[in-house]
Amino acid sequence: MTQPSTIHFEKYHGTGNDFVVVDADDPVPNRQAFATTYCDRDVGVTDPSSETRGADGVLFLALESSYDPPRVVMTLVQPDGSVAAMCGNGARCAAAWARDRTDADVVMIDTPAGTRRAVLDGDEVTVEMGVPSFDPRDVPLDRDAPLVEEAVEGLTVTAVNTGVPHAVALVDDVDAIDLDAVAPPVRHADVFPRGANVTLASRDGDGFRQRTFERGVEGETRSCGTGAVAVVAVAKRLGLVGSDELRVSPPGGDLLIRVPDRDEATLRGPVALDFAGELPVVPTPEP
User: What CATH fold (topology level) applies to the domain 6-129+271-280?
Assistant: First the structure.
């Protein structure tokens, strides 16, 4: 049987965190090459309405509609070809993709970090994010004690796993810091044997502003759901906030985060379908 030369895709974003979405039943022989090519911000997939290029990752989604509620197996391949264990905004986009095919307003998302429940209400999606962990084995850390408010490569950070590891620094003004300069040394610090996302946050009224340098993207993204949860989890650990739902604002828009005492954290925000099209299954390398 002849394999198709092109594959259907859709482009979704959650508060600016954008993903190429592909049905996992459609054959892609080399997912790593597919992701590194089409996520490239210079030569990647192009939005016909805005001419913007690339994406923060490719979501390969397998829908299991026979379950009630329906389930989606989510695999996120990042621009560097690595697979992320969890992505909050990606999970919200996966839930919206599943609703478009099932009309379900509750979807279960199976990720390498565990199964997450998502609830859809109009264009808003709330997804359970697991229980944040400061345990050195969970982050993971190359030490036996939690890392809380300690200097790492010039930043004072707290380490937490919210599905993926984050080094969170609470600062006076997130815009006053050159994230591309300060984040890479922390992202690759010896204390993080598997690397870490680096998230900065500053108070903004009753919430926080956020910027995140994402591992696997190797740069700043317009939104990071696991990072937003990490901000609130760290602020709560430091006694700065309680268990109420809080606004966290990355550059791409507002997210609403709840981190209960002994229950699943939640991430809530809008999701949008940008456009759809066809892409060559085997990318042609750029000259």
Answer: Diaminopimelate Epimerase; Chain A, domain 1 (3.10.310)
